[in-house]
């Protein structure tokens, strides 16, 4: 069970480090997007799942070809995992060198059970070939439920991390850790990674810091390093003392007879 828990924490950590997608090619559209009249780029916008939001897209075609738009996609990502995604079909065309504005109403009712807190969010303009031809990034403050997918994910990480630390500390108290310092350090490493993941989600849910890669990776690496150091500095396990033999212990006679037999052989 402990190995399964540790593997889950390390998998989540690997997703953060290696989950970033490669940079996309230059997009033909320059887009300006507002949500309920507020510019999304460079701002934190609030989404109330219990009411629709008005999304306005202004697209400027910087290429020399007509761009046919199929839909607008809104997606929120944390720890390299997508926690919500909405696609709204809104077909229109943007001629070369022209500017086109479209307004659509987004129904975020399902977001109540999908996310809570601050989440980095991208708004992509998708063409008829399903390629992203324009995008804008923002941070969304989702007023969802703690029992949403994102909230439960954080609670699950908290529980797994508590199990990892409890297992490591219990082994330390019973002097069951490896005599090798580096093996003891590795025993505490998954707990450190888990603590970093929990810290990232907690800061997001409390609306203090969004889980952007510039925050996620250093925080998790520092927590992992602390776990390693704590494990490395744990005391050497004390071997269990041998039981004392009394005068009536039958093993004494067995030992004496074995020694006599050895002497006669010589």
Commentary on this structure:
This protein has 266 residues and is α+β, with helices and mostly antiparallel strands. It has two domains: 22-142, Immunoglobulin-like, CATH 2.60.40.10; 149-233. It is 39% helix and 29% strand. The protein has five helices and nine strands. The chain has helices at residues 2-18, 149-173, 181-205, 213-233, 250-265; strands at residues 29-35, 38-39, 44-47, 53-61, 67-78, 81-94, 99-106, 117-127, 132-142. The chain has a five-stranded mixed sheet, covered by helices on one side. Helix 1 packs across helix 2 (149-173) and helix 1 packs across helix 3 (181-205). The two termini are 54 Å apart. Mean pLDDT is 84; it is low at 19-25 and 252-266.
Percent of residues in helices comes to: 25-40%
- Major pleated sheet: 5 strands, mixed
Average pLDDT: 84
Shape: elongated
Keywords: Membrane, Signal, Transmembrane, Transmembrane helix
Transmembrane segments: 147-173, 185-209, 215-233
Signal peptide: 1-25
Protein name: DUF4436 domain-containing protein
List keywords for this structure.
elongated, 266 residues, 2 domains, 5 helices, five-stranded mixed β-sheet, single chain, transmembrane, four-stranded antiparallel β-sheet
